[in-house]
Amino acid sequence: MKDNSEEMFPIVDEDGNILSAATRGECHSGSKLLHPVVHLHVFNSRGELYLQKRPEWKDIQPGKWDTAVGGHIDLGESVEMALKREVREELGIEDFTPELLTHYVFESSREKELVFAHKTIYDGEIYPSEELDGGRFWSMEEIKANMGKEVFTPNFESEFKRLGF
């Protein structure tokens, strides 16, 4: 498997207004073109947080544990449409109630994203897609004990701190 470098993403300002469009390849090449993404933090009723394991073939942060759902908003999609699509594709979850927590700009050496971070509480079955290398629920203590040890993506660690989980 491999990411589709020709996939089209909207290019936005910091308020999410669409300015233009560019390919995944252009957005992830160090161009720093701001493109929108959705994140969903999935908690169970015991307060544990589900994390996905990124497969080794990913172009960014392969093999690291990351936010339960993270995906790009495609050209022509709303935040809500992209969130529902990504949650269905990545975890097989159809019925959930998302709560928008915040949106912010995340910048790494390769890209710049406008992140729309959500959370939900979900106790149903989770079916990680073949796009992922599985996933599981982590206790808050377990997450905090592994911070800064190259276990998680830098994006997850910064968002975890930002949201004060």
In round numbers, the mean pLDDT is 94
- SSE string, helices as H and strands as E: EEHEEEEHEEEHH
SS-derived structural category: alpha+beta
Biggest sheet features: 7 strands, mixed
Q: Can you tell me the CATH class?
A: Alpha Beta
What does this structure look like?
With 165 residues, the protein is of the alpha+beta class. The protein has one domain (8-163): Nucleoside Triphosphate Pyrophosphohydrolase (Alpha-Beta Complex), CATH 3.90.79.10. Helices cover 21% and strands 34% of the residues. It contains 4 helices and 9 strands. A hairpin with a 5-residue loop joins strand 3 (34-43) and strand 4 (49-53). The mean pLDDT is 94.
Keywords:
165 residues; alpha+beta; Nucleoside Triphosphate Pyrophosphohydrolase; seven-stranded mixed beta sheet; two-stranded antiparallel sheet; 21% helix
Provide a quick synopsis of the model.
Helix content is 21%, strand content 34%.
Q: Which SSEs are present, and which pair or pack?
A:
Elements lengths: L7 E5 L5 E6 H4 L6 E10 L5 E5 L11 E3 L1 E4 L6 H13 L7 E9 L4 E10 L13 E4 L1 H7 L7 H10 L2
Parallel strand pairs: 3-8
Antiparallel strand pairs: 1-2, 3-4, 3-6, 4-5, 4-9, 7-8
